[in-house]
Design a protein that fits this description.
CATH superfamily of the largest domain in chain A: SCP2 sterol-binding domain
Distance between the termini of chain B: 24 Å
Mean pLDDT of chain A: 92
Helix content of chain B: 25-40%
Number of strands of chain A: 10
Helix content of chain A: 40-55%
Strand order of the largest sheet of chain B: 4-10-9-8-7-5-6
Oligomer: heterodimer
Radius of gyration of chain A: 18 Å
CATH superfamily of the largest domain in chain B: Type I PLP-dependent aspartate aminotransferase-like (Major domain)
Radius of gyration of chain B: 22 Å
Strand content of chain B: 5-15%
Largest sheet of chain B: 7 strands, mixed
Largest interface: A-B, 25 and 33 residues
Structural class of chain A: alpha+beta
Low-confidence stretches of chain B: none
CATH class of the largest domain in chain B: Alpha Beta
CATH class of the largest domain in chain A: Alpha Beta
Number of domains of chain A: 2
Strand content of chain A: 15-25%
Order of helices and strands of chain B: HEEEHHEHEEHEHEHEEHHHEEHEH
Low-confidence stretches of chain A: none
Strand order of the largest sheet of chain A: 3-2-1-4-5
CATH architecture of the largest domain in chain A: 2-Layer Sandwich
Largest sheet of chain A: 5 strands, mixed
Number of helices of chain B: 12
Number of domains of chain B: 2
CATH architecture of the largest domain in chain B: 3-Layer(aba) Sandwich
CATH topology of the largest domain in chain B: Aspartate Aminotransferase, domain 2
Structural class of chain B: alpha/beta
Shape of chain B: globular
C-alpha cells in the first residue's frame, strides 16, 4: 500500500463520503447546516483538495483557486495527512487559525464530531439498528466507489487497469438504494455519487445485504455473480479493468 | 416459442458455491463466460451428444461453443470414444508410456508437417513450454505479444495488475498490434538482441472485438523478421488448430512456425495438448525438464489418433467452413431484414458475432440471452465453434431460434429500431 495513495483515498473517498453522510443522516445534516465554510487540505507530495460546507451540504473537490478557502491547512507529507485523518495529528493552519480551532480543534468540535460519527458508522461501531446498518453499507458503497477513482488514478498497479478502462461511464448500483458513476475520460477516472444517464457498463448489487457482504469481504464478486446477486452487463472490458482496481480498495479503505 | 427456466441449475450453483470457489470458476463459469444476465443461462449440463447438450433441467441446446473448442468431431463421438475405451482396457497412466504415444506423435507430426511433438495436458502447458524453449535456445529474454492476446493463465501471460501476478512476471513483455508490420519492426529494432520469441494466434480472435484475419503478406513478413533477427516464431494454434486446416494454421496461412501449440480439438475432448516444432529446436526442447503426472496417459493418445483420422476421412475443415458460412449468412439475412447491424467476423468455422447498434454491447447481450433461452447456445463476446456433427437441419433450427430472439430484442428497443 502506498502512503501517498492512501492520502488521496482519505481526502477524496473517506472524507468525500461526507457529501452523502450529511444527506442521509439527519444528525450530520444538522451539524453541517451550522457552518458555511471552505476548507483546503494541501498535502505536500500528495492531494490538494477543498471541502465545501454550504447550507447543510458538503462537497469535496480537487483544489480550485477560484474557490476561496476560509481555512487553509497544510500537511508536510501524505504520512502527516493520514495521521490527521486517523486523529493522531494536527495539520498546520496557514489561514483561518481561529476558525480551525473552532471547527476542528478538539474532539467535540463540529468537524471532529461529524467525521468521528461517520467513521464509527462505517466501521460498524454502535451500528445496532436496521437503519444504521443500511446507512453503514451505503456509506461504505460510496467510499468504495470514490476510492476506485483515486486508486485507479494514483496507485502504481491500479493505474495500469485504470488507464485500460475504455472511455465512458460505468454505473455502480445497489438496486433502488444507491448509485455512483465512474467516468473514464482522457485516461483519468472520476466519481460522482449519482446515477449515470447513459452508462456503457453496469455493475449492480441486487440488495443492500449483498453489497454489505461484498464490501466487507464476506463474499467475493465472482460468487455473487454466479448466484445472480451481482449483475454485470454492457461493455464488459470496462468492468474487467474496474474489478482489478476494486480488488485493491480494501488495502486502502480499512 | 417456449423459453427455458433453470431451477435445477440454480440449485446446483447454490451447492457448488459452498464447496467450489465462485461455484463454477474460469471460462465455463458465469463471470468469465459473460453469461449476461445469468438468469438466461444454464450452469450445469446432464449429457451431450453430437452438437446437442441437455442441461440439468432437461433443456435441449444446439451448442455453438463446443466446450470452448474441444468438441470437434461431436460430443460422445462413437469412433473416438470406442478408441478410448479400447485403450483403457490395456493401460492409461503407467510407469512407462504406452507404445501408442509414438503412434500418436508420428501421426500428429506428419499431419501438421512438423518434426517432433511433445505432449502435455492443457494449452497453457505448451505455450509456457514454447516460451521456455525459445528463451533457452536464443539465450534472450523478451516476448513479443500481439495486443488482445490470450495464451493461457500463467503469470508470464498476464498483465501486472492481474491478481496474483507480479510486476516482474511481466517485465519482459513487448506488445504490438496484429497486422502491424511497421510496429513490429520498430519493437524489434528497439529491443534488438533481446527478443526470444514472437507468439501469436494465427488470426486475431480476441474477445469483445471484431476478429481480424491476417492481411495479405502479413505472416510472411513476420516470418522473415523473426528469421532475420533470430526470434523464435511461436504459433498459438490452441483455438484454431484443426478447425481451419488439419495441417496446422501456419500452413493454412502460408507460413511456417518454428513452434506450434495444439490443444482443444486434438482429441475431441480427451485431455491432451501438444507442442510441435521444427528439427533445429528439438534438442533445446529435450534439454528442459518439463513434465506432469498425466502428460503421457495413453487414453487421450488413442482418442487423438481416432479423432485426427476421422477428421481427415470426413474432410472436416470443409464441413466447418460450409456450416459456419450457412449459419452466419442466415444470421446476417435475419439481421438485415430487421434493420439490425450484425457484424460477423473471423473464420466461418470460428465465427464471432456483434450487434453494432450501440456502444455498450447491451443490445447484443439481450439478443444472445434470448437465443440461449430458446435453445441456441451462443456466447456474447467470444468466438464460436463449429463441429463435424453439425447438420444443415440443426443450422436451420438455430436460425429460427435466432430470428425469434432478435425479434424480441428489437421489439424491446423501439428507441433504437423505429
Amino acid at each position: 500500500m502506498s502512503v501517498r495513495v492512501k492520502a488521496y483515498v482519505n481526502l477524496f473517498a473517506a472524507m468525500g463520503v461526507l457529501e452523502k453522510f450529511v444527506e442521509l443522516d439527519a444528525e450530520a445534516k444538522e451539524i453541517a447546516k451550522q457552518h458555511n465554510l471552505v476548507i483546503r487540505f494541501q498535502v505536500k507530495g500528495g492531494p490538494d483538495g477543498q471541502l465545501i460546507f454550504k447550507d447543510g451540504t458538503v462537497k469535496v473537490i480537487p483544489y480550485n483557486d477560484t474557490v476561496k478557502s476560509d481555512i487553509h491547512l497544510y500537511c508536510a507529507g501524505p504520512e502527516k495527512f493520514n495521521e490527521v485523518v486517523d486523529g493522531k495529528g494536527m495539520p498546520i493552519p496557514l489561514k483561518g487559525v481561529f476558525k480551525t480551532l473552532k471547527f476542528m480543534g478538539s474532539s467535540d468540535s463540529p468537524f471532529s464530531v461529524l467525521t468521528g460519527r461517520m467513521g464509527d458508522i462505517m466501521r460498524g461501531k454502535g451500528v445496532d439498528t436496521p437503519e444504521l446498518k443500511k446507512l453503514s453499507t451505503l456509506l461504505a458503497f460510496y467510499a468504495m466507489s470514490a476510492a476506485i477513482a483515486q486508486i485507479g488514478n494514483e496507485d502504481e498497479i491500479g493505474s495500469l487497469a485504470g488507464k485500460r478502462i475504455p472511455e465512458g461511464d460505468i454505473s455502480l448500483e445497489i438496486k433502488d438504494a444507491a448509485y455512483a458513476t465512474i467516468t473514464q475520460k482522457d485516461g483519468k477516472l472520476t466519481c460522482k455519487f449519482e446515477k449515470a444517464a447513459n452508462p456503457r457498463a453496469i455493475m449492480a448489487f441486487t440488495s443492500i445485504e449483498v453489497a454489505s457482504d461484498l464490501i466487507n469481504g464476506r463474499r467475493d464478486a465472482m460468487s455473487c455473480l454466479s448466484m445472480g446477486d451481482l449483475e454485470m452487463k454492457g461493455y464488459i472490458p470496462m468492468l474487467d479493468n474496474l474489478n482489478k482496481v476494486l480488488n485493491l480498495v480494501p488495502k486502502y479503505l480499512s | 416459442m417456449k423459453t427455458y427456466t433453470y431451477n435445477k441449475s440454480v440449485s446446483l450453483m447454490e451447492r457448488a458455491g459452498k464447496v467450489i470457489p465462485s461455484g463454477v470458476y474460469g471460462h465455463l463459469g458465469p463471470a468469465e463466460g459473460c453469461m449476461i444476465p445469468t438468469s438466461a443461462y444454464p450452469f450445469f449440463l446432464s449429457r451431450a451428444e453430437g452438437s446437442l447438450m441437455w442441461d440439468a433441467d432437461g433443456n435441449r441446446f444446439i451448442d455453438y461453443m463446443c466446450g470452448y473448442g474441444p468438441n470437434i468431431t461431436g460430443y460422445c463421438d462413437p469412433d473416438v470414444d470406442a478408441a478410448a475405451i479400447e485403450q483403457i482396457k490395456k493401460s492409461n497412466c503407467t510407469t512407462l508410456p504406452n507404445t501408442i504415444m509414438v503412434d500418436f506423435a508420428e501421426l500428429l507430426t506428419s499431419t501438421v508437417k512438423k518434426d517432433w511433438a511433445f505432449f502435455a495436458k492443457n494449452g497453457g502447458d505448451v505455450t509456457s513450454f514454447a516460451v521456455m524453449i525459445a528463451r533457452y535456445y536464443t539465450g534472450k529474454k523478451k516476448i513479443i505479444f500481439v495486443n488482445g492476446y490470450y495464451h493461457g493463465v500463467a503469470p508470464w501471460t498476464q498483465k501486472a495488475d492481474s491478481p496474483g501476478t507480479l510486476q516482474t512476471d511481466c517485465m519482459h513483455a513487448l506488445y504490438v498490434d496484429f497486422n502491424n508490420i511497421e510496429q513490429l519492426k520498430k519493437v524489434i529494432e528497439e529491443n534488438k538482441d533481446d527478443i526470444a520469441c514472437f507468439i501469436s494466434t494465427p488470426y486475431m480472435h480476441g474477445n469483445f472485438v471484431d476478429n481480424v484475419l491476417p492481411a495479405p503478406g502479413y505472416w510472411q513478413a513476420v516470418r522473415k523478421l523473426c528469421t532475420d533477427n533470430n526470434i523464435v516464431l511461436i504459433c498459438d494454434d490452441i483455438r484454431c488448430g484443426f478447425r481451419l486446416s488439419l495441417e496446422g494454421s501456419d500452413n493454412f496461412y502460408g507460413f511456417e512456425a518454428d513452434l506450434i501449440c495444439f490443444c482443444k480439438a486434438l482429441a475431441n475432448g480427451y485431455n491432451v495438448s501438444a507442442l510441435c516444432g521444427k528439427d533445429f529446436i528439438k534438442s533445446a526442447a529435450g534439454s528442459i525438464m518439463y513434465t506432469g503426472s498425466y502428460w503421457m496417459s495413453a487414453v487421450p493418445f488413442a482418442a487423438g489418433i481416432a479423432n485426427i483420422n476421422k477428421l481427415k476421412a470426413n474432410d472436416a475443415t470443409n464441413h466447418f467452413r460450409k456450416m459456419g458460412t450457412m449459419l452466419t449468412d442466415g444470421l446476417q439475412k435475419i439481421a438485415k431484414d430487421k434493420g439490425v447491424n450484425l457484424s460477423v467476423s473471423g473464420e466461418p468455422a470460428m465465427f464471432y458475432l456483434a450487434i453494432k447498434d450501440d456502444d455498450t454491447l447491451l443490445l447484443h447481450q439481450e439478443w444472445i440471452a434470448e437465443c440461449v433461452k430458446r435453445g441456441a447456445f451462443l456466447t456474447n463476446h467470444h468466438n464460436h465453434f463449429i463441429n463435424l456433427s453439425l447438420t444443415p437441419e440443426l443450422v436451420n433450427e438455430t436460425l429460427v431460434i435466432c430470428d425469434e430472439a432478435m425479434g424480441v430484442m428489437v421489439k424491446n428497443h423501439p428507441e433504437v429500431y423505429k
